[in-house]
Design brief:
single chain, 144 residues, mainly alpha, 0% strand, globular
Length: 144
Amino acid sequence: MRPVPWNPPIELSSEERQVAKRIRKAKLFLLLREIRHELFDDQFQIELADAIFKDSSVGKCPVPPAQLALAIILQAYTGVSDDELIEALIMDRRWQLTLDCLDCEQAPEGIGTLVRFRAALIACEGDRRERRTHSRNSRKKRGI
């Protein structure tokens, strides 16, 4: 199965605005929430899916690669382990805000999915491509 593109809302909901007001120090969560639709545009999501996922009719529908990639970015920023990442997705509203799973009772992905995705991303050098291209494009759009 091919993953579906991740198209979370662009505008903050009233509940998300309440969470955003409470974030004092970890501003990257807010920044990524605001620009996730720019970082992971449709074309980039297709490229990610093509590089990592095989066409298959077996198994569950994969988690959108953009959502997994964003979780890995947050993991690197916070320095948490894979187990802590999954826990943060359930317990930490900052993570939920950024990854579009506010008040979720179950993490959108499991540790196995996360580990396999990270390994596949590194194997196809998608981690490097993501940083180079989208950093450049985001800076251009923001006039930096």
